Amino acid sequence: MRKHLLKAIQIHAEECYPAESCGLLLSIGRAQKYFPCRNTATEPSEEFRIDPEEYAAAEDVGEVIGIIHSHPDATSRPSPRDLAMCEATELPWHILSWPEGDLRSITPTGSTPLLKRPFVHGAWDCWQVCADWYKREWGLEFEAFKRAEGWWESADSVSLYEANYESAGFVRVDKPQRGDMIVMQVGRTAHPNHAGIFLGADPILPDEDAATFGPGPFLLHHLYGRPSELIVFGGPWLERTRLVLRHRDAR
Prior knowledge:
Distance between the termini: 47 Å
Mean pLDDT: 93
CATH architecture of the largest domain: Alpha-Beta Complex
Shape: elongated
Number of strands: 11
Strand order of the largest sheet: 6-11-7-8-9-10
CATH class of the largest domain: Alpha Beta
Order of helices and strands: HEEHEHEEHHEEEEEHE
Radius of gyration: 21 Å
């Protein structure tokens, strides 16, 4: 990181302390510039959020080539959310510990394992593990649906799975086959709020150690607050099932 950029980042972190500072690294011609942003998160001492309008304003100035934020009174070690969002944004992330002043950079790998990934709502969650399976297995890509924390709890909120499955290319079926998406209702919720990929009797995931037990059928899923995993699909999971969805390009 160039000295003038690091200095600007440090000044902003000091101004925002004890909240997290956040901003964007821009490329303008042959030069680079730090574009400071307001942290609009509900708990700015714990996380950050850049307003979409500010992000758009930065894009009017130059090309966004990195995302920067501070860790107040903590190390520059990336959190699970930092790692997840780095992958989701497909941009390098730069993390400044403050007031320590250590800067650490992480870059997207372009490939996150389907199994044992930590849960980060909106980045590594049940919808994303399904979308990633479809991309790797069938080459399908989906819109990165925006989902607010707790959208499933209120009857006034849009039921995201029910409202979007048709536009995403899915149709309802009665009996699952390998590759179908199983949409479930877990806990006391107003809407179906969980999904996984039905794998049938074949739990194999390329390049991953998918240790299994029993004869199946198996389900790949990512339950709230837990690492992504393979489970036997039956019993209470069948009782929670609300939709069985098959993509129009099913193999």
